[in-house]
Amino acid sequence: MGKKNSTESTVPDTDTYLQGLLVTNPLQEPIFRRAIHALDLPPGSRGLDVGCGIGLQALLLAEAVGPGGHVTGIDISPEFLVYARDIAEKAGISDQISFQEGDMNNLPFDDDTFDWVWSANCAGYAPGERLSLLKELVRVVKPGGSVIILAWSSQQLLPGYPLLEAHLNATSSGILPFVEGAAPELHFPRMMGWFRSAGMEDVNVRTFAGDACAPLSGEMRDALAALIEMRWVDVEDELSEGDWAEFQRLCLAESPEFILDLSDYYAFFTYSMFRGRVVG
User: Fold this and answer.
1) pLDDT tens profile 60-75
2) What is the pTM of this model?
3) Residues 6+ apart with CB under 8 A from 114
């Protein structure tokens, strides 16, 4: 999935990207709910949502810690934060959530401020030097608290076409946020090493899977169509002529052979969640 926060806003069209977050949320929310439930966050605890985007996960986190707890969301995009505040107000939990603009590489909080830090679809994709970012997240967490990073880790969206999907995943768009030639230790699945280098203990990882199968509801069909559109962008120049023809036939919503219309359609995707304990 796309990045929500970095040292600069990298979203070229905020309205389009925001709409994508909303449309694909039915795919992601069940996974986020299961992940948050598995964390067993302390009731009444105070946490930070780094790269909170439009606040969808902040609401789930606030629900998990209960009315005595509090969640602070931080994002570099002021446009997203306007939307996030509106969502929290409509949900009736504005007193449990606050949002502010800021850079995750230079958090505007004192040391030992939070009981835990959460980041979904953000810190795991961060460009540049990972260790300094993780140390900054650790800095604002109290001893004994947790740093939690969750990110998209795999998918199978084109059942029956594994070679085409492999070729699409190898394009510049499909391989994001990584780039060709990046050091292996800088890839997200190697995050346990980052956590340990940042001084955390009891580091662990869990994988959560989501799936969808025919018949698809209108909401789920829209979510999967948006996901396919977001995953593989401007891929024509990197595909063979045959692959490009197959992509147009199978992956464009206006195609009469759009893959989501298969009567036996099935897809799955995974998120991986890394967690480490901050030592005193």
Assistant:
1) 999 999 999 999 999 9
2) 0.90
3) 46, 47, 48, 72, 140, 141, 142, 145
